[in-house]
Design a protein that fits this description.
The complex is a heterodimer of chains A (124) and B (267).
Chain A (H helix, E strand, L loop, with lengths): L3 E3 L7 E5 L4 E8 L4 H18 L4 E10 L1 H19 L4 E7 L4 H11 L6 E5 L1
Helix pairs in contact in A: 1-2
Chain B lengths: L2 H16 L7 H77 L10 H18 L3 E8 L2 H8 L1 H16 L7 E6 L2 E7 L3 H16 L15 E8 L5 H17 L5 E3 L5
Parallel strand pairs in B: 4-5
Antiparallel strand pairs in B: 1-3, 1-4, 2-3
Classes of the chains: A alpha/beta (124), B alpha+beta (267).
């Protein structure tokens, strides 16, 4: 499986997946024209990582604005993590936000609901 | 037929069929066939019942599964909607903040030129509808560059803040006061005659002279402003009113500052 490195734009987040480290990072704004197209490689990478390795997976996010289809896609990724967690896999999410913008933190908390795997919302 | 009844019947019929005494009896042959047919039917009925039961169980399971999936999807959609609404609320609030910021002068907190222009245009329209004028006062701090040079930008900024505060104080609800640029301020006075506006500005001049700016006070200096007034006439282009006020301000400066000049009526 390949690493991912998708540079961010004004409307899409920067995406980087490091297979060796077992880390997926996404940061920036996310209101793409086609969220499914943008996030399909991310989804596939997470699925492949969980299927082909048994190493821990960490997802680090620093997302600001998410449009509705991005919200749904991010939830789909969290669902993958949740079912992996049910199979005793070591998975975790760290969602960073600027403490000047508390509402981003509140939104991350809303994403955390229903997730039983370690999910940290971190102000910085 | 219940299994018990069937077994009881079998217990009675089988010995009769097996009994060699009845061999060749015409009823024995018919009874044998009836008994066999009955057994086949019972067996088929059992199979059918079993099949039907399994179908029903399957359908019930599937329905339950779909029900669960439906519930899950519904919950998911509700969450997406809630989070999405939250994001939109956040954006709207940011927009409001941004709009407010875009109409405010950062240093002095009074309206900026954009806000003043918007108010002026509203007043021009109102004046056209109601055939009433309004007065524009162009105000400039006297010798501001010298204050900045002699006492530094911090004192200069403080002077701007204090002048803005004094100019904006005690205005009527429908008046506007803002920073036009640099050390220049603009007062918009609707429903006001030129003579009344002159009186208002005269009090502003006095208030500015009485301001105590640290640094300036030490050297016995005080701030002063000059003002140029122009009354907007219904139908007059806004730019003309503003340039007449500018001209009057220039006249006040030329006459020695710390005073008010009024623009003549437009030709």
């Amino acid at each position: 499986m390949n690493d991912l490195s998708i540079p961010g734009t004004q409307s899409t987040p920067a995406i980087a997946a490091d297979t060796n480290a077992g880390v997926l990072r996404m940061s920036g704004e996310s209101y793409p024209e086609n969220a499914y197209e943008l996030f399909a490689p991310v989804f596939e990478w997470v699925e492949a990582f969980l299927a082909e390795t048994d190493r821990p997976l960490l997802i680090e996010l620093e997302l600001l604005y998410l449009n509705t289809s991005s919200i749904k896609t991010v939830m789909d990724v969290f669902d993958l993590l949740e079912s992996a967690h049910q199979r005793q896999r070591d998975v975790a999410v760290r969602w960073y936000f600027d403490q000047q913008n508390e509402r981003i933190g509140e939104l991350a908390e809303e994403f955390r609901e229903d997730c039983t795997f370690p999910f940290h919302v971190i102000g910085k | 037929m219940k299994p018990d009844e069937l077994l009881a019947l079998q217990a009675r019929i089988q010995p009769l069929l097996d009994d060699p005494e009845h061999a060749g009896h015409p009823l024995r042959e018919v009874l044998g066939e009836v008994w066999q047919l009955l057994e086949e039917h019972v067996e088929r009925l059992d199979r059918l019942t079993h099949l039907s039961d399994s179908f029903q169980a399957m359908a019930r399971d599937r329905e339950r599964g779909m029900g669960q999936r439906y519930e899950r999807q519904l919950r998911r959609i509700n969450r997406v909607v809630r989070i999405s609404d939250h994001y939109q609320r956040m954006l709207r609030d940011l927009n409001t903040q941004l709009e407010e910021a875009s109409y405010r002068d950062m240093l002095t907190g009074v309206d900026n030129r954009r806000a003043l222009m918007s108010r002026l245009q509203q007043e021009v329209q109102r004046s056209q509808r109601q055939s009433t004028g309004f007065v524009v006062a162009m105000v400039d701090i006297d010798r501001f560059k010298q204050i900045n040079d002699a006492y530094g930008h911090e004192i200069g900024d403080l002077a701007l803040i204090e002048v803005a505060r004094a100019l904006g104080a005690d205005l009527r609800e429908y008046d506007a006061c803002g920073r036009w640029g640099g050390e220049e301020f603009l007062l918009l006075l609707p429903f006001t005659s030129l003579a009344d506006a002159h009186g208002i500005l005269q009090r502003k001049l006095e208030a500015i002279r009485a301001l105590e700016i640290p640094g300036l006070a030490l050297t016995g200096q005080h701030l002063s402003i000059s003002a140029g007034l122009a009354e907007h006439r219904p139908g007059e282009p806004l730019t003309l009113t503003l340039s007449r006020a500018d001209g009057a301000l220039y006249e006040a400066k030329r006459q020695g500052r710390d005073r008010i000049a009024c623009a003549a009526e437009p030709q």
